[in-house]
Design a protein that fits this description.
The complex is a heterodimer of chains A (216) and B (262). With 216 residues, chain A is mainly alpha-helical. Chain A has 8 helices and no strands. Chain A has a single domain (2-210), classed as Orthogonal Bundle (MetI-like fold). In chain B, helix 3 (111-121) crosses helix 4, helix 4 (127-140) crosses helix 5 (156-168) and helix 5 (156-168) runs parallel beside helix 6. Classes of the chains: A mainly alpha (216), B alpha/beta (262). The A-B interface holds A 112, 114-115, 117-126, 128, 132-133, 136-137, 213-216 and B 56, 58, 86-87, 90-91, 93-98, 100, 102, 104-108, 117-118, 121-122, 150, 152, 166-167, 170. Chain B: Belongs to the ABC transporter superfamily.
């Protein structure tokens, strides 16, 4: 059994790199898009708020698998052809963005209105208010659900194997296809996914503790 | 010599405002000259706080004008009633200081940090300079030793004194005080009012909404009584709080007030 794992490792390492790369792209892109759209949802004019609200509700109402197949197999019908890798990244990013919007809305919404007013009263502009007053306080509430979402993104990235992308999951299945030894390899895969996510949780807990001095 | 004998620093002229169908300000006019301390009293719902919030444009107003040093606060001076840009509004708001009933200190910043934020980001001061100014004002409000405390580590009275220091450190032309002692335990009210009194002695122009009648009588140059969204009476404290005042609304307000406070 150890021999099989040693034999599979270099191959799995490549798949693992793809898993990390997909996760990183999805997490980074969805963070930028989600924060921007979330700010639009909280502070924007009514039409913008409706657009973001409809986007978020629609995306969150669709199973992620359907979203992936829709982007890869559906969009070519309207002339958008994406490589499987980018189709998967796009679908996962859309899904994650909708979640980030809600985390941001919740976190920013929990900051009392007086904080905005006090920062207006000393003459801060909108961007300064966000940067120096609202976000530093909202961060503590944003972090725990967001890190949860990051671990979901790492686990969810396994779905890209369904488009034939050789990530960790697909690599494992390919090795099993050659060795017919499912159990040890699935255990190995589970351990790798767990190690990544457990490390993330630990990092999150440390960060939360660093910001716990903020009391309202 | 100036031809305007006594130009108003704050000139509120026929300002009206409605929340939906409720008219909260009805053609309110009020002039405040430099160095004056004007106290606004009146029953709750009379529009006092809304008026104050219009002066630094935390609330917009539907008609009329509010000028500070001759400059319209919330709208561009182009004839058409167009809201100022975000940048302009921020610059205008920096000219007025505001102290809030619920303090509204920034909980993630120390006492000094609360004061330094505006000095650094709005006034463009260096960190060292801002720190020096913050320490000066913390000294003035008797909290020099609390510069590095977080708001949560301070009592209500101390928090409010930091709130005042944060506002005056920006060197505003006018200071707006919105029921700043209403959220305090009675034994903490005095220390906050003492700070306000010393600012008045320095010649700081102030408009203050308060329920502290004794303080209004002693510290203000003028008292404005608001009722139903309008200015019902205005004059020197002795006149407004005196027995001969010929204003039924004011008399019944004061009578009810005395009955509930003594």
């Amino acid at each position: 059994m150890l021999g099989q794992i040693a034999y599979a490792l270099p191959f799995l390492a490549q798949g693992f790199a793809v898993t990390l790369w997909v996760s990183l792209l999805v997490v980074a892109l969805s963070l930028v898009a989600g924060v921007m759209m979330g700010v639009g949802l909280v502070y924007g004019p009514a039409p913008l708020r409706w657009v973001v609200r409809i986007f978020s509700d629609t995306i969150r109402g669709i199973p992620i698998l359907v979203l992936i197949f829709f982007v890869y197999y559906g969009l070519p019908a309207v002339g958008i052809h994406l490589e499987s890798f980018w189709a998967a990244v796009l679908a996962l990013t859309l899904f994650k963005t909708a979640q980030v919007i809600e985390y941001l809305r919740g976190a920013v919404g929990s900051i009392p209105k007086g904080q905005s007013e006090a920062s207006m009263a000393i003459g801060l502009t909108f961007r300064q208010r966000l940067a120096y007053v609202i976000f530093p306080q909202a961060f503590r509430r944003f972090l725990p659900p967001w890190i949860n979402g990051v671990t979901d993104a790492v686990k969810g990235s396994a779905l890209v194997s369904l488009l034939g992308i050789t990530d960790l999951m697909h690599a494992i299945n390919q090795v099993i296809g050659r060795t017919y030894e499912a159990m040890p390899l699935y255990i190995l895969g589970a351990v790798i996914y767990f190690a990544v996510n457990y490390a993330l949780s630990l990092a999150s807990r440390r960060l939360e503790r660093r910001f716990s001095f903020i009391r309202e | 010599m100036s031809t305007h004998a006594n130009p108003a620093l704050l000139d509120v002229s026929e300002v009206s405002k409605s929340f939906g169908s409720v008219e909260v300000l009805r053609s309110v006019s009020l002039q405040v000259t430099r160095g004056e301390v004007v106290t606004v009293i009146g029953p709750s719902g009379s529009g006092k706080t809304t008026l104050l919030r219009c002066v630094n444009f935390l609330e917009s107003y539907d008609s009329g004008s509010i000028r500070i040093d001759g400059k319209e606060v919330g709208f561009r001076e182009t004839g058409t009633r167009q809201r100022r840009s975000e940048r302009d509004l921020a610059a205008m708001r920096a000219e007025t200081g505001m102290v809030f009933q619920s303090f509204n200190l920034f909980p993630h910043l120390t006492a000094a940090g609360n004061i330094m934020l505006g000095l650094r980001k709005v006034r463009g001061k260096s960190s060292a300079e801002a720190r020096q100014i913050a320490e000066h004002w913390l000294g003035r409000v008797g909290l020099a030793h609390k510069a590095d405390s977080l708001p949560a580590e301070l009592s209500g009275g101390q928090q409010q004194r930091v709130g005042i220091a944060r506002a005056v450190a920006m060197e505003p032309k006018i200071l707006l005080l919105d029921e700043i002692t209403s959220a305090l335990d009675p034994e903490l009210v005095g220390e906050v009012l003492e700070v306000v009194r010393s600012l008045a002695e320095d010649g700081m122009t102030m408009v203050m909404v308060t329920h502290e009648m004794a303080f209004a009588r002693d510290a203000s140059s003028r008292i404005v009584f608001m009722a139903d969204g309008g200015v019902s009476a205005a004059g020197p404290p002795a006149e407004i709080l005196g027995a001969e005042i010929d204003n039924e609304r004011l008399r019944s307000f004061l009578a009810r007030f005395r009955a509930s406070h003594f």
